[in-house]
């Protein structure tokens, strides 16, 4: 089963563009880290792929999810160790070092870790210097605020919650000044509105306040 999943992930890694970098070998490595990071998550979120794997291996869908969950933890841990080692040597591996394509690979690893607080100053500095597109930093800031049970700023984060009225479901986490969120998104470099972003995440966008929620968000 694990070999089958690994094959799917490796099949996603193709020829990568590494032009205009100081460290092309590092750029290739960071590109591969990002592709594998995204591949396991896309596979995890695709019900049709999950069903196909279950049928091909003659196992239950629940078993597939269990294996994928374990594989995601393994991949995230390996990616974090590698990213840690890169940051210790180079600092944030941004555009001038690894090029546009790989400049957000380290961000993606950090975004999926439980170490966001630790790396926020590094991401902020990279964004301020143009080494990382600002909207990536904005997404991590929103996630940090959500984990602290505070209002997000750019409306990028969704969460499974229970409301005080007893309803449960995915919502866009409460936003500070929701009336101005689309203008903030535009200035941050997002090309979609908060409603369009919600639709991408298959969430019916509604405005909620923190006081509407009955329980804190749970970290992944």
Could you explain the architecture of this structure?
With 220 residues, the chain is mostly helical. The chain is built from 10 helices and 2 strands. It has helices at 2-11, 24-45, 47-57, 61-90, 95-98, 105-111, 116-128, 134-147, 181-188, 194-200; strands at residues 158-162, 168-172. It has a two-stranded antiparallel sheet. Strand 1 and strand 2 (168-172) form a beta hairpin. Helix 2 packs across helix 6 and helix 3 (47-57) packs across helix 4 (61-90).
Keywords summarizing the entry:
220 residues; mainly alpha; two-stranded antiparallel ribbon; 5% strand; globular
Low-confidence stretches: 10-19
- The total beta strand count reads 2
Name the helix and strand elements from N-terminus to C-terminus, one letter apiece.
Answer: HHHHHHHHEEHH
Biggest sheet descriptor: 2 strands, antiparallel
User: How far apart lie the N and C ends?
Assistant: 24 Å
Mean pLDDT: 88
| Total of helices | 10
Return Rg in Å: 19 Å
The shape, in one word, is globular
Instruction: Please indicate the percent range of residues in DSSP E strands (runs of 2 or more).
Output: under 5%
| Major sheet: arrangement of strands | 1-2
Question: Fraction of residues in helices?
Answer: 55-70%
Determine the structural class based on helices, strands and strand pairing.
mainly alpha
């Amino acid at each position: 089963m694990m070999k089958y999943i690994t094959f799917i992930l490796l099949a996603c890694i193709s020829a990568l563009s590494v032009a205009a970098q100081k460290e092309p070998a590092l750029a290739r490595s960071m590109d591969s880290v990002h592709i594998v990071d995204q591949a396991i998550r896309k596979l995890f979120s695709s019900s049709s792929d999950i069903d196909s794997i279950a049928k091909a291996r003659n196992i239950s869908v629940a078993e597939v999810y269990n294996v994928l969950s374990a594989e995601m933890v393994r991949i995230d841990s390996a990616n974090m160790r590698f990213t840690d080692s890169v940051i210790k040597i180079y600092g944030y591996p941004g555009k001038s070092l690894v090029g546009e394509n790989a400049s957000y690979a380290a961000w993606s690893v950090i975004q999926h870790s439980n170490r966001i607080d630790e790396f926020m100053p590094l991401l902020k500095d990279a964004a301020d210097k143009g080494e990382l597109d600002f909207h990536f930093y904005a997404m991590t800031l929103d996630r940090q605020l959500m984990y602290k049970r505070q209002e997000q700023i750019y409306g990028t984060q969704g969460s499974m919650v229970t409301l005080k009225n007893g309803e449960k479901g995915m919502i866009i986490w409460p936003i500070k000044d929701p009336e101005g969120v689309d203008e903030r998104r535009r200035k941050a470099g997002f090309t979609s509105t908060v409603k369009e972003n919600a639709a991408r995440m298959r969430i019916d966008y509604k405005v909620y306040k923190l006081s509407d929620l009955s329980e804190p968000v749970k970290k992944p």
